Amino acid sequence: MNNKQLVLMRGLPGSGKSTRALSLGGLICSSDHYMLNDGGDYEFSSDKLVFTHSQCEDKCLSAMRSGEPLIVIDNCNLVLSYYINYFLKAMEYDYSVRFEDVKTELTAEALAARCIHGCPAEKIQQMMLGAKYHSAEEVLSMIRYFYKK
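User: That's the sequence. What structure does it adopt?
Assistant: Structure tokens below.
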């Protein structure tokens, strides 16, 4: 029986993903951790997004290699291309995968006001419109179809 689990947080900025992630326990991997300046304060830079997400993936992969029993990916994970690599690695290292959806009825403006990272309402609105809430089973089926022929 597989006891290793990968949890992908999924939700808009300001929805409470990080708070929920902390309540799950386990090792938390978040691209936000790599946006901290030398003083330890969060400092968003779109120029650093590729770097921060690759660092997050590297931390997750290292944890999988060492057999960490619970890994939580605390990113928005709203589009397949943002999280498919986590599924591929989970399959390789025998991790079960599930989403922890943090959905909200709040408006983009309300989420922007709650978001501690300064994400503007316009960006959150774009994310709302582009979000795709595939189930883990759907993602695994797509992977098997496209990658395992």
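The chain has one domain: 5-147.
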